[in-house]
Amino acid sequence: DSLLQENMHKILNLSRRNPCQIVKFCTEKQPRRPDEKKLLRELCGKIRFTGPITIAEYMREVNTNPLHGFYMDKTVLGSEGHFITSPEISQMFGECIGVWFLNEWMKMGEPKDFQLVELGPGKGTLASDILRTVARVRPEALQGLSVHLVEVSSKMRQLQEATLCGHSHGEGGQEQSHVSKFGPKVAWYQTLRDVPKQFSFFLAHEFFDALAVNKFERTKDGWREVLIDIDPTASEGTKLRYVISRNATPACVLLEQSGVMDLMVGREKVELCTLGGTLVREISQRVVEQGGLGLIADYGHLGEDGDTFRAFRKHKQVDPLDLPGTADLTADVDFGFLKSQVSPDCAWFGPTTQGNFLHNCGIATRCQQLLDSNKDMYVHKNILESYDTLTNPDKMGQRFKFVSLFPATMGQIHEKYPPVGFTEVVEE
Question: Which residues lie below 8 Å from residue 175, measured CB to CB, with a gap of 6+?
Answer without folding.
Answer: none
